[in-house]
Specification:
The chain contains 7 helices and no strands. By secondary structure, it is mainly alpha-helical. The two termini are about 25 Å apart. Keywords: Membrane, Transferase, Transmembrane, Transmembrane helix.
Length: about 200
Amino acid sequence: MTLDQFRPVANRLLAPWVRAAKAVGATPNAVSVVAFGLAIGAGAAYYVATPLAYAGGALLVFLNGWLDLMDGALARELGTESEAGDMLDHVLDRYADVVVVSGLAAGLDQFGLGLAAVTGVLLTSYLGTQAQAVGLDRVYGGLLGRADRLALIGATTAVTALVPTVAGYSPVAALLVVFAVVGHFTAVQRFVSAWRQLA
């Protein structure tokens, strides 16, 4: 299901935004920090767990994802790509994942499910970068990459703002189950792919 295959399309759509950011003197690191701030706002909104909060959280998650794409594109445009910037981006992305997923779980008072979901999310991302750490290309594939997660979070919470329960169940709870199950499955997919290349 991965949306990462559409990165070239996203980069074309980002071009005018990157030019605008460049014109006002924005830096890639500043964009990364703002994106993280939006994720904190989304996590807080999801903790509140009202229809209006879910709608606001969905918007903030969309903006977080957009800026997460833009920081790298801006770095390439400015010619300032660096390992330090890449590290900052990935650290903030992982904290953003924790904040958003924890907010979703806390809003439902489902902390056990939240733990299973957030570990699935973190291990998926870890396996993607660990492949690079051992000399392979960074892995974005598998069933549930970060772009997919953000799209699912935004869509699910937007729906939840309008329809809080379906057949007595919260769509957000179903989303956490998906992250718990498919997230760990994706991590295993990435591990197997890397292992085969190394072997």
